[in-house]
Amino acid sequence: MVAAELALFLVALAAGFLQLLWSPPAPARVAAVAASACWAALLLPARRRWPVAALAATAPVLAGGNVGAMAVLPIVSYATARRVHPARRLWAVVPATAAAGLLLALAVERNAPYGLEAALAGNAISVAVLLVFPALAGALRGQRRPRVRLLRERNAYLERAQGLAADKARMKERARIAAEMHDMLGHRLSLISMHAGALELTAARTAPELSGQAELLRTSASTAMSELRGILGVLRDATDEAPEAERSGTRADIADLVAESRKAGVDVELVWPGPDLAGADPRTRHAVHRVVREGLTNVHKHAPAARTRVEVTVERDRVRVRVTNGPVPGTRPRSPGTRQGLVGLEERVALLQGALTAGPTPEGGFQIAADLPAHPSVPADPPVPREEPEPREVPPPLDAEVLTLPRVLGAGCLGALAAVPVVTGLAVLIVLSLLE
């Protein structure tokens, strides 16, 4: 970078002294050409650090009449216009510099033999070609770069958002699978474990030779439950959704759950004094089903010998569900719980703008209670398709060095905007200088 700048400086300095090849070797003329050449060459390193000052300092070169030094002005004007922000600041400096250059040129050529009007027209063309056109091209290039950078950042943001949306869809499907596994398999495995325990006790008294097989059945059910919990820990996410069944949460559905628990040996009764929930919101009915199922599952695991009461009360637009078990008789130790089901219930009920409480009762038992709206005001989420298409891989953004047809055309038009007038103008100035 330093070597290129040094080479450009030396070339500009040499171009400024070319005027001496066709100028008379008068001392005053040599001093003027040397001063304008050095001044123009010094503008090149200044264009990066002090762009506004370098642009304003081109006025003396415009009025000097040194064609070689004036050839540096398009480079300075183009480079400084790319760095001056905001745009109104640039277009305040360019007209001021152009006016100053014209006034200095008219002051130098006030006694020109071809007249003041011709001098004014020639210098105006020089200002437009060497200052205004390159500044316009540089301003366009300077505005294009931040916009391209902004577009790349937005493209990267959209790619990340698309990836996050795909991850969210996968996690949502995992949560749905986890909820179904917990509610369906967990409940069934608890029943199997209960029946296996009862079979083990009976076999120990009546058929000791079958006691080992009964114990193996019970321990296998417990192991399966532990493995299921491990799988749920992998699949579970904060979002918990599941499709609602048609009869979920109705009186017949809850009665079936209670009957299954009775068959497993749990002393449970159902109290449902009000109307059925067939006309309630499906999400509310499904939440009622989940609360009762979770409560009975906890009873099977922790208090199978306790008396249990399932109560569903429908009052106006509210539904209250309670699953209460009494104290556990005897000294049978309780197995520790993971509260995964309760966490899922709390989230489900909270999404419906309801309330869930779970904790021990003063009598030494345990109660799960939920207060739900019959018709929640929360809008239902749109159904998620079973099979979601895989996100299409988005190609990475093109690098700045990769040439494409739009880039070539855009760069060519921008270069022509500055290069064609500049080259033409410099050629005319060189011809006029040789004819003088």
Automatic annotation (TrEMBL):
Enzyme class: transferase
Example GO molecular function: phosphorelay sensor kinase activity
One Pfam family, short name: HisKA_3
Region (Disordered): 362-394
Top-level taxon of the source organism: Bacteria
Protein's name in the database: histidine kinase
Enzyme Commission number(s): 2.7.13.3
Lineage, uppermost ranks: Bacteria, Bacillati, Actinomycetota, Actinomycetes, Streptosporangiales
UniProt biased composition (Basic and acidic residues): 384-393
Classification via InterPro entries: HATPase_C_sf (IPR036890), Sensor_HK_TwoCompSys (IPR050482), Sig_transdc_His_kin_sub3_dim/P (IPR011712)
Catalytic activity: ATP + protein L-histidine = ADP + protein N-phospho-L-histidine
GO cellular component, one term: membrane
Domain Signal transduction histidine kinase subgroup 3 dimerisation and phosphoacceptor: 173-238
Parts of the chain that traverse the membrane: 50-78, 90-108, 120-140, 408-435
